[in-house]
Design brief:
This protein is mainly alpha-helical. It contains four helices and no strands. α1 packs parallel to α3. The longest helix has 29 residues. It starts with a helix and ends with a helix.
Length: 108
């Protein structure tokens, strides 16, 4: 029996599942400032996946890199979700949300 596909599927599920709370915690503690960390990590791991001969390792690196890149958009979307009240706002960074709300009101 060949378990490669199942291992890749489980790894993909776990990686995506882990990135969900990582994005939430990152936005809560630092806002969207660290989007570039996700960019660099994504580019590095996707590039590395191109040079790894082992199919399973290459696939897992590719999924990890794609998840990092996808998380950039999710980080900014998470900020919008916080502004809508769907997730808790970090009281230490309250000004980042209130300034944005005031800007939106002034534009209308």
């Amino acid at each position: 029996m060949y378990f490669t596909g199942i291992i890749i599927a489980i790894s993909t599920f776990l990686i995506i599942g882990i990135f969900h709370p990582v994005v939430i915690k990152t936005e809560y503690h630092t806002g969207t400032r660290l989007w570039w960390v996700f960019l660099l990590a994504g580019i590095a791991t996707v590039t590395t996946a191109l040079f790894v001969e082992n199919i399973m390792a290459s696939a897992i690196l590719g999924v990890f890199g794609a998840s990092c890149l996808w998380s950039i958009g999710e980080l900014f979307d998470q900020k919008k979700r916080v502004m809508k009240g769907w997730f808790p706002m970090n009281p230490k960074r309250k000004h980042e949300y209130t300034d944005r709300k005031n800007e939106d009101r002034q534009e209308k």
